[in-house]
Design brief:
118 residues, mainly beta, Lipoxygenase-1, five-stranded mixed beta sheet, four-stranded antiparallel beta sheet
């Protein structure tokens, strides 16, 4: 997947249900010396059903963006989330992480996409 955006990069995480949902987006650039973290956004204000953020400044160029998300059982295991970048929905899921008698069931997501800043 490839996303094109201006800077700042607009992001939004929406969440619902009885689980705790946190996420992070890291933007990496490739250099001759290796990977360099150019920007990051952490979504951990779990009391907000919608958590908009932005990453700025990102220089023009191409980045590898890594999305991670964690859903943890709280009052119950029910969850629903969407994640968007540059006004494009990239990830969405819903379900129930309460899959065992343990009180702290969880589920993790990780994916990546190409980000072009123009």
């Amino acid at each position: 997947m490839q996303i094109t955006s201006n800077t700042p990069l607009a992001l939004n995480l929406t969440r619902r249900g009885g689980s705790i949902i946190t996420a992070r987006l890291d933007c990496w650039s490739a250099t001759q010396q290796g990977w360099k973290l150019a920007g990051s956004a952490v979504f951990q204000d779990v009391t907000k059903p919608s958590e908009p953020q932005s990453i700025s400044p990102l220089a023009k160029g191409q980045y590898t963006a890594v999305f991670t998300c964690r859903v943890e059982e709280s009052i119950n295991g029910v969850y629903e989330f969407t994640f968007s970048a540059a006004n494009q929905q990239l990830y969405a899921d819903k379900g129930n992480v309460n899959t065992s008698p343990a009180p702290n069931d969880w589920k993790a997501y990780k994916d990546q996409f190409i980000l072009d800043i123009v």
